Amino acid sequence: MNSIIRACLRGGDPQSPATRRRCGAISGAVGIVLNTLLALSKLLAGLLTASVAMTADGLNNLSDAATSVVTLIGFRLAGQEADAEHPFGHGRMEYVAGLIVSMAILLMGIEVGRSALTALFHREEAAFSPLAAAILCAAILVKLWMFWFNRALGRQIGSAALEATAADSLSDTLSTGVVLASTLAGHFFDLQIDGLAGLLVAAFILKTGWEAARDTLDPLLGRPMDRALAEDIDRLVREHEHILGIHDLVYHDYGPGRAMMSFHAEVPANHDLLEIHDIIDHIERELKEKHHIDTSIHMDPVVCDGSTAALRERVAALAREIHPAFTVHDFRITAGPIHTNLIFDVVVPYQCRLSDAQVRDELTRRIKALSERYFTVIQVDHSYVDSGV
């Protein structure tokens, strides 16, 4: 299996469209051939034994062969270059292919469940065949190999479509095991549980389809940037001189290897503008080379005198007391003869139960406890990154 995966990658960049297209084509071809052979074998065994569960399992493999065709086509379409109608490329076709696969799994699960219910209420004794039992044992081994192969390949290139295919193969392994168990139970213990076995097969198929649909819908609807990736980007950017911090990170996923993001970088307000601009340009190129993300960075000038920095940190600590994931940025002070305005943004994760108004009121109350002179102007933002809290 490792040699096949190495042949798929061929030492190339796992996120490049060419490598992903090759991996999808090989996975699809393997799925078409093996699933077709399994489907024909199980349908033959189902005819020999009159087993509803075995026939349903064979139909499930036939649908897997069809979805392998969808996967192959999806990866080929996803590998197309950007054009006038699709300036961000066609990478999301890979997610669409995964969604189609999951929908096909769900439809097959419903059909298998319907056939199993019919068999449960109109019981017919299934015959035993050593050939059928051997076919089921071989099918379990083949499907286990397909699970390991697609999971390993999917993790190498970070493909939700291949992960969905791997999950389907594992579900097929479990469902075929149930069919084998019902066949052996009928032969050795005279337990006619063919209909119940068919229902269990349907349940496995439906569970797999639901999980696969959820995993492929997330990137299509728009999911937050992975927290580990966000932390690595923050570390990389802060390593550069004169970068004080980053915030308002927004990430757009147009398919594997086709991502865009923007964020604000805080820089000293009194530093040379041309030098800062050169640093920002270098960071954008570095992020493109390391993470394959096209980046647009907005510079935020920050006053860096000691009193402003100390008060900002005090306010940030108060925000963290309300919720550990709260962060403060764009902090400014405008002092007057009677009042001092503290103007800043606070970033709130979506899992926070407080409303924006409640966040402003609570933070204002805590700041007022520091000094009655302080008046607050607070903008509440919501994080586009998974805070993990």
Tell me which oligomeric state these chains represent.
Answer: single chain
- Whole-number radius of gyration? 28 Å
Strand tally is 6
Widest sheet: strand ordering: 1-2-3
Low-confidence stretches: none
Instruction: Give helix and strand order, one letter per element, not per position.
Output: HHHHHHHHEEHEHEEHE
Give the CATH H-level superfamily of the largest domain: Cation efflux protein transmembrane domain
Instruction: Name the shape in a single word.
Output: elongated
Put simply, the count of helices is 11
Return the CATH class of the largest domain. Answer: Mainly Alpha
Number of domains in the coordinates?
Answer: 2
Briefly note the structural class of the backbone. alpha/beta
At CATH level 2, the architecture of the largest domain is: Up-down Bundle
Reported for the largest beta sheet, the result is: 3 strands, mixed
The overall pLDDT, averaged over residues, is: 82
Portion in helices: 55-70%
CATH T-level fold name of the largest domain: Alpha-lytic protease prodomain-like
How much β-strand is present in the residues? Answer: 5-15%
Distance N to C terminus: 39 Å
